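Quick one, T. Sequence first:
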Amino acid sequence: MVRLPLTPEEIERGQRLGALLRRARGERSMLDTALAARVSPETLRKIETGRVATPAFPTIAAIADVLGLSLDAVWAEISGAERVVGLAGSTHRSPERLAS
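Structure tokens:
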């Protein structure tokens, strides 16, 4: 099976996911988090560093559960939900996100 190359948007989304998981993990060790989520520490490391930009949904659901994150919050953070489409169809950052 041939896997298509990731789009720049998918790569960016994977990087946002990794950053979110690292922040949510805080001081908790990667090993403890991975074992509690029943994933390998290597898998968690690859996701957190953005090397796996499109991890499987059950993997993310398990990690989010261990970290106390709702899947809605994860999706809002990584999907670029802060982007809004202007009248001309171009994508702009919302004013709230520009200020942060």
